[in-house]
Structure formats: structure tokens, C-alpha cells
Amino acid sequence: YTFKNLTLSSVGGVTYGRVMEITNGAKYNEFLNCVLEGTVSTSTSANYAVVYMYGGNNEFNTFRNNVILNGTYPLYFYGASANLQEGNIVENNIMTNYYYYGPYLYYQKNLQFNSNYVENGSGTSVYGVRFYYSDNMTVTKNTINIHGTSTHYGMYVYYCDGSVANPNQVANNMISLTGTGTSTWYGVYMYGSTHTNFYHNSVHLLAGSTTSRALYQSSGGNLKIVNNIFSNAGGGYALYASTPAAFVTSDYNNFYTSGSSLAYWSGVKSNLAALQSASSKDANSVSISSPFVSS
């Protein structure tokens, strides 16, 4: 089925405020050029997700060129550990004014998440895009702008596994954390993920504490980090590598901090030369302040 040029709104309720629920093995549906308007809420419950898709048999559905507003989550896709949702496409959507999480993509396979704009509304601890157990995914050309008053996560990549033949591709994304507060912020939080190519991304933290990290990595393996900007203007780390052995390649990056600790790699490294010496990587990388300009 194709759902096109529709405006759907939720008036909200005491317990639920979803606009759309996709379930019971829904496959090969298209949602194109629609406006999906959820309830303005300060709840953290998925009961107020704008689009709620639960169950491993909901696959090969496409969301393209939609405006998705409000709610606690703009998208809440949740497959099953033994039955990943496969082949879903989320492209060229505008998702704004949500309260808690941005797109929440759990137990996915061959997900395409490209050319989307994601920005939260008001909130304290806020999240941009969250990928949980999403394997062989492609994440490109997205703009993520997160601003709250406590902890921030721009992109959360948790146990997402690629392969030699089909690695995760995370490329050409712009991630900005521009809120207030002195909690720990994470531009990219990558945990337990394998065979991931992280290319040509820009990650910029405007504030946060000195423990904040533009890129945080732990566990996993076979990571390739090439031609990215990791900028921390809040005085925290540009890079925090808890598992250095996970990095197969790291080069042609720009690591910048306004503080005194550029990176953590088997200990704190105050500058690029110290990082290069400790890692034997990033021979062609630089450390300069990048002139990010808001449009």
C-alpha cells in the first residue's frame, strides 16, 4: 500500500497519543509526503511515539519526504532479537519537536537511514538517533541538531554489526550538540559495534562538561574512522577510545578541543602528536578549529 499526501494528527489521551501503529507483519508499505503530527508531551513513554512499529515481521516499509512532529519519539521501530526487522527505509524526512528520543531503531537489518533532519524540542537529557542491534545499516547525509539542559547523545550506535562484505556505512552526517548545561555530552556514542566505516562526518559540541566526547568508543572491532571532523568547543575530548584495538584505520581526521585534553587513548593525550605516538595512527590528521556556520 502507498499512503501519500496525508495529514494525520493525534489529539492525545491520558495513556496513548500515537499517530500510526504498524504491526502484525506489515510489509512493503510506503508513506510518502505526509504530515504526521503527534501530541506535544513531556512523557518519556513510547505510548506517545508518532510512528510505532513493533515486531520482527514488519519489514521493507518506506518513510520518505514526510514531516513528523512532536511526540516522545518521532519513530519507534522495534524488531526482535531472533527476527530483525529487515529492509526498512527512512529517507528525506523532517523530524522535529520531539521531547525525549529521536528515531529509535532497535533490532534492524539492512536499514537505510538517509538525508533526514532531526531536531528535538525542549528537554533535559535528549537523544538524536539511536541504533540498537541494527546490523548492516547505511546512515548517510543526515543532519542532527540536539539541544537540552543535561546529557546529550547525538548518535547512539549500540551493538550494530556489519561484516567484511557488508559493513555498516555511516557517512556524510552533520551532528551538532548546541544545548546548555555541564553534564557529559556524546556527539557519537559507539559501543560494541563491529565492521563499521565512519567516513566524512562532522561532529560538533558547543558546550557540556570537560568529560564530554565528540566521539566515544568502547568494545567492538574493525572500525574505520576516516576524514571526519570531531570538534569539542566545550572543553572536553574530541576522541575517547576505550578500546583502541577496535580501530583498524584512523586517518585524515580533524580532532579539536578548546580544552587541555584532546583525546583518550590508553591514557589522556593533550595534543595530536601525543595521540599519533600512542596510536600509530592518524598520520595525516590535523587539529584545528573548524569554522562551523549555522544556516
Structural class: mainly beta
Radius of gyration: 19 Å
Largest sheet: 12 strands, mixed
Question: What is the average per-residue confidence, as pLDDT, rounded to a whole number?
Answer: 96
User: Share of helix among residues?
Assistant: under 10%
Number of helices: 1
Distance between the termini: 37 Å
The proportion of residues in beta strands is over 45%
What is the quaternary state of this protein? single chain
Mass-distribution shape: globular
Number of strands: 32
Low-confidence stretches: none
Brief descriptors of the model:
295 residues, mainly beta, twelve-stranded mixed beta sheet, ten-stranded parallel beta sheet, 1 helix, 32 strands, globular
